[in-house]
């Protein structure tokens, strides 16, 4: 106990005595740790942003999509799809699921009735595909039972309607011959210039009030089923779902596929390696500077080491002491680097730098801070090994006379 | 049983040209608790090597060294180091204070390697010891701000702070003027007597050596007893034996002085 405390006290005393030297040696280490920590954190945020972007179009990991197409006019009617999907979800206890049906629906705008691209879904889609609503809200389960259909539209739709915003509680007539008044509850931003008006509506509400003329016809689009399942269950579930749906829909071609190969991991891996490489190189340079200065310092301290040996300092204690000087110093530098990295990351709007922004902005990754501290301490230990070895190789009687 | 006992101790080193240089030859010496022993001899006669062996900084090539009856060859390197820190206090000619540390930190330094209360109370113990050597008001002074005599007093306080059983003083007055040297030796003698520690002084200052109870002369690695109080003076020829007088480093520097030690190393067959 006293040995360990003594070594730490000695190490701290050495650092205190040689503040300037230590400071110069450690600036490089602190900067390197800051770089590696900040880059690690940025990569994590970038990865999150990229993942979220992927999830907005392909769904969260792992989303299985079941597509069904009638192979001929003699195929079972599409109206059986809903019941088939419901049975499958219940059988496998799947809680996150949505039907996803791209169709077109007539809406009555001030300038006349127009067909608008509509996506009919279930409320779960908002979470499953991170649908960002800029104004208003996404659908809730209660909306399914509401009398008037609820709509989430893009701002092009809202502009076409002549409504300024949601404050005026805009409504629109949906359908042609027997229209129903739909309430707009949310607005999404346009994703690219020249985007056409589009709307999202709850599947059950749309089918309750409006049946597209071509919806039951052969060769027309029919709703897909998307389910969000744990990755470990995806391999088993995909073929089971495909089999079950195909079994009750004779004459239909049923496919089930998941989104695991959509490439989010590629960026993660590559960016991490680049960050790691840059950080490691910076740390190597910082560590070399530290070794250099530590070696020179040990040479200057040979007499002192000899004197300490005469006090009864064992070679192990001398080795540990010199090593600890380096470790304590780099640990302090590492801490400074991590604090600087946190300050930078917290004060730079990293998420806005990634375009669309991050929905689930990750907190400063603890792993990045730990990686930074571990690297700093590791470099300190490695940088301390050489001078510590030199220190214990000194012959005591020669050292005292040095 | 003596505290320290050397019997027929030899120390030799092999030179780069493969010759064997014998620094100490058949040295026999015993030191008891509380005793003050002085070893005189010119530079290069092996005085420091003898002190290093006594203080466990070096080991004999041949012969036996008993520390409280235990052959040091039986002690592990770790145990020798532990005994060195616990049982021996060193006072060096050049003081060897740690640079950049205050007087207090210097005196507390050996206690960093102590155990238990000595370790945890190191600052208090160091302050008490500095007070004892008359430097109670210079605790936070850096060594370079102290005079030579004060620095050596700090070194003495540092040597004594762990309560050693043996104080090994290597030319303790070598870097001091005559008066300061006497003052420092007086202090060293006094504190050694008070603590009951044995004091082994190596010096070429006859006045310093004369303070000891027993005197030895080291010539060409051979240790022989001398009596500095009477007949023992004949070996210095016409060199003054007044207090503060020193043996010439170079025999040729004083006419008529018999050659006591040849600077060339003794050669033996490998």
TrEMBL record, chain A:
Its main location: membrane. It is found in: Cell membrane. Keywords: Cell membrane, Membrane, Transmembrane, Transmembrane helix. It is a multi-pass membrane protein. InterPro entries: ABC3_permease_C, MacB_PCD, Macrolide_Exporter_MacB. Pfam families: FtsX, MacB_PCD. Residues 278-392 form the ABC3 transporter permease C-terminal domain. The chain crosses the membrane at residues 22-46, 273-298, 318-345, 365-392. Residues 23-208 form the MacB-like periplasmic core domain. PANTHER family: ABC TRANSPORTER PERMEASE YTRF, MEMBRANE COMPONENT OF TRANSPORTER-RELATED. Belongs to the ABC-4 integral membrane protein family. This is ABC transporter permease.
TrEMBL record, chain B:
SUPFAM superfamilies: P-loop containing nucleoside triphosphate hydrolases (SSF52540). Keywords: ATP-binding, Nucleotide-binding, Transport. InterPro entries: AAA+_ATPase, ABC_transporter-like_ATP-bd, ABC_transporter-like_CS, ABC_transpr_LolD-like, MacB-like_ATP-bd, P-loop_NTPase. Residues 4-245 form the ABC transporter domain. It comes from the Bacteria. Transmembrane segments: none annotated. Pfam families: ABC_tran (PF00005). GO terms for molecular function: ATP binding. PANTHER family: ABC TRANSPORTER ABCH.1, IMPORT ATP-BINDING PROTEIN. This is ABC transporter ATP-binding protein. It comes from Cellulomonas avistercoris.
């Amino acid at each position: 106990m006293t040995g360990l405390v003594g070594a730490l006290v000695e190490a701290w005393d050495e650092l205190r005595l040689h503040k300037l030297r230590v400071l110069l040696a450690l600036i490089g280490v602190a900067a390197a740790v800051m770089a590696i920590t900040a880059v690690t954190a940025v990569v994590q945020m970038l990865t999150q942003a990229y993942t979220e972007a992927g999830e907005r179009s392909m769904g969260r990991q792992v989303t299985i999509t079941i597509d069904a197409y009638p192979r001929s006019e003699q195929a079972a009617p599409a109206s059986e799809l809903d019941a088939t999907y419901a049975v499958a979800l219940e059988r496998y206890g799947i809680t996150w699921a949505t039907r996803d049906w791209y169709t077109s629906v007539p809406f009555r705008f001030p300038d006349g009735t127009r067909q608008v691209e509509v996506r009919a879904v279930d409320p779960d889609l908002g979470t499953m595909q991170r649908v960002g609503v800029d104004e208003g809200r996404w659908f809730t389960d209660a909306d399914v039972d509401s009398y008037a259909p609820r709509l989430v539209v893009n701002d092009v739709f809202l502009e076409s309607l002549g409504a300024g915003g949601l404050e005026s509680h805009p409504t629109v007539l949906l359908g042609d011959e027997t229209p129903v008044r739909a309430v707009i509850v949310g607005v999404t931003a346009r994703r690219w210039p020249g985007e056409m008006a589009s709307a999202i509506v709850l599947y059950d509400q749309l089918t309750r009030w409006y049946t597209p003329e071509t919806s039951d016809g052969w060769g027309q689009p029919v709703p897909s089923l998307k389910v969000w399942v744990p990755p470990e269950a995806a391999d088993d579930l995909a073929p089971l779902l495909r089999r079950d749906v195909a079994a009750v829909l004779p004459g239909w071609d049923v496919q089930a596929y998941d989104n695991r190969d959509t490439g989010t991991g590629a960026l993660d891996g590559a960016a991490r390696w680049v960050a790691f490489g840059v950080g490691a190189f910076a740390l190597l340079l910082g560590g070399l500077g530290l070794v250099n200065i530590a070696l020179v310092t040990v040479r200057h301290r040979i007499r002192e080491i000899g004197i300490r040996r005469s006090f009864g300092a064992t070679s192990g204690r001398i080795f540990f002491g010199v090593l600890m000087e380096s470790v304590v110093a780099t640990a302090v530098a590492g801490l400074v680097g991590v604090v600087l990295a946190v300050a930078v990351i917290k004060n730079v709007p990293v998420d806005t730098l990634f375009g669309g922004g991050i929905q689930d902005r990750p907190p400063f990754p603890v792993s990045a801070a730990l990686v930074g501290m571990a690297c700093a301490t590791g470099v300190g230990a490695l940088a301390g090994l050489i001078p510590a070895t030199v220190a214990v190789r000194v012959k005591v009687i020669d050292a005292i006379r040095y | 049983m003596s505290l320290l006992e050397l019997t027929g101790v030899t120390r030799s080193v092999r030179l780069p040209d493969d010759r064997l240089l014998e620094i100490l030859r058949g040295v026999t010496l015993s030191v008891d608790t509380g005793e003050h022993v002085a070893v005189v001899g010119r530079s290069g006669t092996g005085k420091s090597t003898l002190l290093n062996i006594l203080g466990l900084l070096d080991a004999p090539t041949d012969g036996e060294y008993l520390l409280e009856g235990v052959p040091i060859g039986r002690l592990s390197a770790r145990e020798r180091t532990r005994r060195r820190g616990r049982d021996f206090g060193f006072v060096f000619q050049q003081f060897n204070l740690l640079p950049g540390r205050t007087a207090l930190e210097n005196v507390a330094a050996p206690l960093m390697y102590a155990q238990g209360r000595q370790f945890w109370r190191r600052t208090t113990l160091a302050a008490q010891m500095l007070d004892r050597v008359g430097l109670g008001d210079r605790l936070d002074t850096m060594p370079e701000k102290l005079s030579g005599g004060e620095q050596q007093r700090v070194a003495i306080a540092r040597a004594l702070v762990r309560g050693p059983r043996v104080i090994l003083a290597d030319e303790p007055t070598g870097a001091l003027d005559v008066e300061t040297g006497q003052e420092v030796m007086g202090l060293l003698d006094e504190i050694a007597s008070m603590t009951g520690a044995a004091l082994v002084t190596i010096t070429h200052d006859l006045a310093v050596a004369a303070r000891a109870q027993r005197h030895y002369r080291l010539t060409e690695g051979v240790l022989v007893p001398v009596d500095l109080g009477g007949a023992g003076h004949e070996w210095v020829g016409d060199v003054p034996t007044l207090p503060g007088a020193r043996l010439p480093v170079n025999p040729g520097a004083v006419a008529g002085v018999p050659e006591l030690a040849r600077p060339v190393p003794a050669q033996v067959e490998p």
